[in-house]
Amino acid sequence: MNRNLILEQLRNDYIKHIDSDDKKNQYFKIGEISYLNIKKEGIEMFRNSSSGCGLGYADSILINADVLKTNLKRFISLIINIISFNKFFKHQKVLTKRIFDDRFKYLNYIFKNNSKVQRLVKKYKIENSTQFGCYNFFTYKTKKYSPYYLELCNKIDFINSKKNLKKIQSYCEIGGGFGANIHLMLQNFKNIKKVLLIDTFPTIYIATMYLRKFYKKSVISYDQIKNKKNIKFSNDKNLEIICIPPWKIDNVNITIDHFHNGDSFSHLEINKIKKYLSFLKKNQTKHFSVTDLDVSDKKYKVTSPKKYIKLFNKKTKLFKNNFIIDGLRKEKNIFFIGKLT
């Protein structure tokens, strides 16, 4: 496997397929900066506080603002630093890190003493949740955990209470970020053998490398399916995780037992959601779960969940569930769980 080859293949094809409207989207701009950071730093520490490789989808809390800049802005910042002998920016970074270190101490105490966290840690297998330089973690009984993983586990637990995930074999996730949710699903539901992960560039590159860390050759990367006109799972019971970008979904021919989207459909235009829905219907998707935030329709930047969920099934009920730590956020999680029309 050549990481650089996969990265550049994805990058080149991404530029070919992206349209002018997408280039105006803030996520395109974030993705471009993320790609710049990946090229410069690699991905070994993409979850730390100064990488910038996981902008928009990783659980890192950034301290170094330089990683949010384009090449031109970085050059200007470098000149300013040289002129000012870097004193101001250096002291500011030190101060910011102290503030975040104090914040993490408080969060560490809150998480490890929370009864819901303790229940989930006991009920579910949560291993290797702080790989790739995770800076934001808490320690419970000498073991490190990512709060992000625990929140995902909280959501999985709720979905599993409505839909028995132990009865599915194939699983599809659109907008799966760097792969943490799939990592958790595979640790706890050994019945799942076939997985399809769809996300845009450069997220899909990070997710591919992240999941390959744990599942090795079971992960099918872009270079393996790039020229395939018919993408499907092998007819066996071996674990298989196919990672593809959106422009390849027309080539997919599989059967999906359960589909999941976590908090990203509301960032898409309705026409793009309709395209994904057509894809799900074509591949005989049986059940779905969609999560989002419980905020007013006006606060959604693009499409309200109450609007897009009607395309899936008008009879789908809305469920609400608190975040794992009650009170840390005003909003609640909302869930749509059901069958496609």
Report what the structure shows.
With 341 residues, the chain is α/β, with parallel strands linked by helices. The chain has a domain of 189 residues: Vaccinia Virus protein VP39 (Rossmann fold). It is built from twelve helices and ten strands. The protein has an eight-stranded mixed β-sheet with strand order 5-6-4-3-7-8-10-9, with helices on both faces. Helix 7 crosses helix 8. It starts with a helix and ends with a strand. The relative contact order is 0.11.
User: What is the CATH domain class of the domain at 151-339?
Assistant: Alpha Beta
Q: Approximately how much helix is present in the residues?
A: 40-55%
Largest sheet report: 8 strands, mixed
- Rg (CA only): 20 Å
Shape estimate: globular
Task: Output the keywords.
two-stranded antiparallel ribbon; 10 strands; 8-stranded mixed beta sheet; Rossmann fold; alpha/beta; 341 residues
Brief description of this entry?
This protein is an alpha/beta fold and 341 residues long.
Please describe the topology of this protein:
Blueprint: H1 3-17, H2 20-23, H3 26-41, H4 71-83, H5 87-112, H6 115-123, E1 138-140, E2 143-145, H7 147-162, E3 170-174, H8 180-188, E4 194-198, H9 203-215, E5 219-220, H10 222-225, E6 240-244, E7 258-262, H11 270-282, E8 287-293, H12 305-312, E9 318-321, E10 333-339
Parallel strand pairs: 3-4, 3-7, 4-6, 5-6, 7-8
Antiparallel strand pairs: 1-2, 8-10, 9-10
Helix pairs in contact: 7-8
